[in-house]
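hey team, just a heads up i'm posting the complex here instead of the shared drive bc the drive is being weird again. everything in one block, sequence lines first with there labels, then the predicted structure for the whole assembly after. its two chains so it's a bit long, scroll down
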Amino acid sequence: MRKQLCDTLVSQADNPRMVFLTGDLGFMALEPLQVALGERFINAGVAEQNMVSVAAAMARQGFDAWVYSIAPFCYARPFEQIRNDVTFHNLPVRLIGNGGGYAYGVMGPTHHAIEDYGVLLTLPNLCVYAPVFDEDVPAAIESASKETRAVYLRLGRGEQPAGYAIPDYSPWRQLVQGEGIPVIAVGPLATTYISALQDLSDSRRPNLWAVAELPLSRHGLPEALEQAIRTHQVICVAEEHVAHGGFASELSLYLMQRGVSARMLHLHAKAHHYDRYGSQAYLRAQSGLDPQSLLDTIQGT
Amino acid sequence: MKPLLDNKQMLAIRRRLLQMHHESGVGHIGGNLSAIDVLSLLFNEYLGAQDAFILSKGHSAGALYVALWSVGKLGDEDLRMFHRDDSLLAGHPPARGIAEIMFATGSLGHGLSLAAGTALAKRLKGENGQTFCLTSDGEWQEGSTWEALIFAAHRRLTNLTILIDHNRLQGFGGTEDVASMCPLQERLKGFDVDVQAVSGHDLDAMRNVLALPSRRLRIVVLETTKGKGVSFMENRMEWHYLPLKEPHYTLALEELGLT
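-- predicted structure starts here --
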């Protein structure tokens, strides 16, 4: 999604209040943005704590501040700076974490971001965007630009199955329709399920929904999805995030508060306990997040 | 031009600081007494509408509140609420409610980055004015403070002045004993910055240093005494924490010649 990110931000570069801070990342990707912004493109060096506080102060001075790094360096290292300097003051700093979930795959656990939105959504005045398809990025950036509070943008890599028409960006989209159980996937993980689910019979094919904005309390559940959960009395959530603090936790509370009784099937990232490393696809499979694991889970309902 | 602050006024400000801490039964008085002179000087003589100030050593909030009181930005009613329920005046600077306090601080190692970002933003906007940041000396053990210094020096933020309250005592020992960077001034000179050292209790000396021309980021190491002005508090670590109760309060006022 980096190309789409760069192109979109370049298109906004004529906004004199826009500043972009990077933690020394963006080689062979963000050079056009560097040219477009000039002195408003700030390589803050390998110093993420300082970078986030500087961005907070610049936002306080009226700038539209974007902060960019590999996802874990963007939220885990400078967490206190996000908490104290950005969210305590309700400043609209936009944190862009490249490579959410297992996107950095074989690069190892230090580069994985599998507790990012759970941690960040404990903070006040912050929301999360997790674009599903690469084509979502312009609309997500456009929407994030208008937020008056902090944003964490979790970038990954979406897949587009052959012949599949991508629906326009929306916080909630139904990607696959069927008569089976409802399934919710967070961010680009949803795109990896489309082909496998489309091959199922109508009666077994689940309703696959993708959510791109968190927390759930922002938009609530689409009415049709809530109705499907009530009808089937089961819901499957797949997320490239650890179980604790994940989307399924918030959804469970949401459903209980509304008196909806349903069995929760939860596919999630495993905590950082690895014997072996591999690609994002490998790590997803190890966590039971691959399409076959989803099919096996559905089969059991 | 604003009228100059004199030593008589500084005694009254010190007295008000002691009164506030006594009435609220609050500690942290030692580091407040070391910082009160420079804070009062800044708010009375230097900080105008275009300038900015960030207190990185948030545990000197009491001195900040009293400095604001000295220029009429806070009243006696406000100070009476220090550390109490339903108060704006928390033990560390609050996130909102007082216009002159731009950021909630108290976790050390944040303020210098916030000041650097403020100064850079003002430069990009083409605004005049100076951003001042007061750090503690122990705070230079925080890695993020060095991140901020590298950033500010590299960008030659000449519209930023870093002030260090160098009282040589930190939470659980002397700065030289805990994790020494002494002589701090020599360490800092390794960067592309102008460094001056001056007594942080001598108003004229501070004025003279701040009047010096500088084409680089400026750091002023303020040689201070924790608990300055009250003999039994001076250079005593316990007064980093102890609340100011009787009979110490009366003794302190007597020493300041104010009873």
